[in-house]
Write a structure and sequence with these properties.
Layout lengths: L4 H12 L2 E2 L1 H14 L3 E4 L2 H34 L22 H12 L17 H32 L4 E3 L3 E5 L1 H6 L3 H16 L7 H6 L1 H13 L4 H15 L3 H4 L4 H14 L13 H10 L6 H4 L4 H9 L9 H21 L7 H17 L6 H18 L9 H14 L8 H15 L9 H16 L6 H17 L1 H6 L9 H15 L17 H4 L21
Parallel strand pairs: 1-3
Antiparallel strand pairs: 2-4, 3-4
Length: 564
């Protein structure tokens, strides 16, 4: 039985938020969700008990601090006061009386704290035993802080173990039932994620890919879920990856490749580029072929990039994307000549701009492939295209929502928007306005979810591709979908373990949420006749099957144009 649209909208809102105002869905809406068995009340007695204990400890600590204040004031008044730096004899201390307000309050606080200090029965006993009282308060204060820290950790653990519920203000906690989770549009994709997590992290027979999944869970889980969505079995995909990894580990050039994420990126690129003929990936299992590919690029590869492991993914980005073949010498020569021509013009135009070597090289790759897919060869037309493209990039870079840290990062940001405008300044206004709306929704002061600019650019690419296909999606629908999936990832036991290792980088979890959201948006998409394929910026789109209904994927393994 299908869930009514209004009920489904209420369910989506509740599933996306950690805390929700009652007026957002209404008391009747909450009752309707309960009546249909889509949600259930979540009592959480352990968490409530821990929170009550935490509040009581906070009050105890406040009373200890207040008692210390009384004791400190009494101690200062008991201390003798010097007169004119010792020129006159020390004065006798004024001394507080036994019925001093601080002494009376201190006794009251000791009773509230249930502290029994030897020799202290009333306010008249405070002054003779002041040092002992301060010692008691010091010890009690430390113990109270220790108990606060322990309780805070227990609350955090209880929240992680609890189901991903939502606190409806004034009504308590509610969480989705199995029927409620199945009613959401992302349910099939989340089932694929569960299977991929089990395959990658749950097997007792862990192969060579296990360390790779721990290093980059976002990229490899996205790759695995995407292949499963296309009908592949997860175990078959992992076996295919491990077989290729084992073959390349016999080649010293790749076996010693660092960092590990560069190695992962190269392997995933090969698998995506040779999906129709898997054996073609093994043509690169040859030291001479690998060295020849990087040797061709030596003239244009910056020394810092040439010395890092990223030289091989960049070689794949130049020679393998969009149907490139590793055994076609003529094609490889054409591509390197085109890249050299673009690189020369870009060097001339950006010579006064400080930009990192890797960013400069990635920007040149994007422009070179942009010229290639437009059938430009080195010459006047290509020169004009590159110059106009860089003008559009620099114009779009000026609209960065805030300081991105350096000029190079701003230029890469501008490249995303310039690509959507066809590298034409006159068509920039639409992409600029679309991104500004996304930024306002996700990074505004009242937004519940704040994500990186890289993830916002992926959201822009997803919505832009849907619009070009004639199936536009409202921004708010996408935002709520992203928030639901990200919340599920935070509370998912297996996913939270995958994203809690030392290798994880900032934004990895959000990147996986963005990729899963894109898969949901394109799942079962009904496209108009004769729909065209639209590649996103960077090289990721050139590794995809040229099918109109494919979602864009975010991450360095896919060739996404990364800001850093």
């Amino acid at each position: 039985m299908e869930t009514p649209p209004l009920t489904l909208d209420r369910l989506k809102l509740l599933a996306a938020a950690e805390t929700l105002r009652l007026d957002a869905i209404g008391r009747e809406g909450l009752a309707d969700l309960l009546a249909q068995g889509l949600i259930q009340k979540d009592q959480r007695p352990l968490q409530a008990s821990l929170e009550g204990r935490y509040e009581a400890l906070q009050e105890t600590h406040r009373q200890i601090v207040e008692a210390k204040g009384c004791a400190d004031r009494l101690q200062r008044r008991l201390a003798p006061k010097s007169r004119l730096a010792g020129l006159f004899p020390m004065g006798a201390p004024a001394g507080p009386r036994p019925d001093d307000p601080d002494a009376v309050q201190l006794v009251d606080l000791l009773e509230l704290l249930k502290l029994q200090v030897r020799g202290v029965k009333g306010s008249q006993d405070v002054l003779p035993n002041l040092e002992r009282i301060l010692d008691y308060l010091q010890v009690e204060g430390r113990e109270c802080l220790d108990r606060l820290a322990t309780t805070d950790r227990e609350i955090d653990q209880a929240q992680k173990q609890a189901a991903p519920g939502t606190q409806v203000e004034g009504e308590g906690y509610f969480r989705l039932t199995a029927a409620g989770e199945a009613a959401l549009p992302e349910a099939p994709v989340m089932e694929l994620l569960d299977a991929s997590l089990q395959t990658a992290f749950g097997s007792s027979l862990r192969g060579g890919s296990y360390a790779h999944f721990k290093e980059d869970p976002s990229g490899l889980l996205s790759f695995l879920v995407d292949r499963m969505a296309a009908g592949d079995r997860p175990s078959a995909v992992v076996s295919e990856y491990e077989d290729l990894l084992e073959a390349f580990d016999r080649v010293p050039t790749l076996a010693d490749l660092q960092p590990l994420r560069a190695k992962i990126a190269f392997l995933v690129r090969l698998l995506r580029a040779s999906r129709d003929e898997p054996k073609r990936a093994y043509l690169w299992c040859n030291r001479e072929r690998l060295n020849a590919a990087t040797h061709r690029m030596r003239a244009v590869l910056p020394p810092t990039v040439a010395a890092s492991g990223w030289r091989l993914p960049y070689a794949a980005d130049l020679f393998l994307v969009d149907g490139g073949r590793s055994d076609d010498e003529e094609q490889a020569e054409q591509r390197i000549r085109l890249f050299e021509a673009v690189h020369r013009i870009q060097t001339e135009l950006l010579q006064d701009i400080r930009i990192r070597d890797g960013q400069f090289f990635r920007l040149a790759l994007v422009l070179a492939h942009g010229a290639r897919v437009r059938n430009f060869a080195p010459g006047i037309l290509m020169d004009r295209f590159v110059r106009q493209g860089l003008e559009a990039v620099m114009e779009a870079a000026q609209t960065a929502p805030y300081d991105l840290g350096d000029r190079g990062t701003s230029l890469i940001f501008g490249t995303h928007l310039a690509h959507a405008a066809g590298f034409t300044k006159a068509r920039l206004q639409g992409p600029l306005q679309a991104f500004a709306a996304i930024h306002a929704r996700f990074r505004g002061d009242d937004s519940p979810t704040r994500v990186s600019v890289q993830v916002l650019l992926h959201a822009f690419a997803t919505l832009d591709r849907l619009e070009r296909l004639g199936a536009p999606m409202p921004l708010e629908d996408y935002a709520v979908l992203f928030e639901r999936i990200r919340k599920r990832l935070r509370h998912h036991k297996a996913a939270s373990r995958a994203f809690s290792t030392a290798q994880i980088k900032a934004g990895d979890e959000a990147a996986l949420a963005a990729n899963l959201s894109a898969l949901v948006c394109f799942r079962g998409l009904s496209l108009p006749p004769k729909s065209l394929y639209h590649a996103d910026v960077g090289l990721a789109g050139l590794y995809e099957e040229r099918l109109p209904g494919r979602p864009p994927l975010l991450g360095s393994p896919f060739g996404t144009l990364m800001l850093i």
